């Protein structure tokens, strides 16, 4: 699941590095050692949201439509890893009438769902603090993210 | 995986509700509709860390050793869901010598690992803002977590 996010950021950075050349999904599959279907699904998302333009097929390929500084990492995270809609499978409690304490189980499900949802909102906010230009900066100077996260009081 | 956390908080709240009675792992398995092995593994962790005391076997059972306000939700999260040690399977890039761009792939792996690790630290910090007394409060008055998270500037 999280791989889709990595494919998105890796693709965008490679497109940026290769500008003004077009890059094909086959090249990206090669670059990342990831199945071409995963690549194409992610490129399709990026295309739909206007991050890249291009065509498939002979002489096809993609180029970036935005500057890295204009691309928010959190937006890419939300796009490729949508929030979990139901936390049911992470929650305990038998709410059937004959259970030991169905009322407590029902309350637990509500409270834990709220807790997980709020924690996930908080988690995503972290990614929204960075742009793809920051990621490019960290690629060249590892440790940049950590310094920024500390300066912003995020960790 | 995250189920272990739910089992831990559910168990502790039930033990608190039943005080001074002892509660058995069989009762907890019944309460949560969760396999008894999962329950026993979690109880063993809670016992080792001194959150509960008690014995297995005939006339066995567990009681709480701490007040809910003394139990940090983040400590329980870290105990039951340890941080991922390697993000390798979420990271793209072929670093072998014949790959398209092994240097970029290697830099991507480092930067994405840092990004994921920092985001996880930030995520866990959310849980550390709450005690089990807060969770008990939210069980009775749903929405309490959300109000607190907003007041604390977490979301």
TrEMBL record, chains A, B:
It comes from Agrilactobacillus composti DSM 18527 = JCM 14202. Pfam families: Rrf2. GO terms for molecular function: DNA-binding transcription factor activity. It comes from the Bacteria. One of its GO terms (cellular component) is cytosol. InterPro entries: Tscrpt_reg_Rrf2, WH-like_DNA-bd_sf, WH_DNA-bd_sf. This is Transcriptional regulator.
């Amino acid at each position: 699941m999280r791989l889709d996010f990595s494919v998105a950021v890796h693709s965008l950075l490679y497109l940026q590095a290769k500008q003004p050349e077009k890059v094909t999904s086959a090249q990206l599959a090669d670059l990342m050692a990831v199945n071409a279907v995963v690549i194409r699904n992610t490129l399709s998302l990026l295309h739909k949201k206007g991050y890249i333009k291009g065509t498939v097929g002979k002489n096809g390929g993609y180029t970036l439509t935005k500057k890295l500084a204009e691309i928010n990492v959190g937006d890419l995270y939300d796009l490729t890893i949508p929030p979990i809609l139901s936390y049911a499978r992470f929650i305990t409690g038998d709410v059937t009438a004959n259970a030991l304490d169905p009322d407590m189980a029902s309350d637990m499900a509500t409270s834990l769902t709220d807790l997980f949802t709020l924690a996930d909102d908080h988690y995503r906010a972290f990614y929204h603090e960075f742009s793809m230009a920051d990621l490019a900066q960290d690629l060249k100077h590892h440790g940049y993210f950590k310094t920024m996260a500390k300066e912003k009081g995020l960790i």
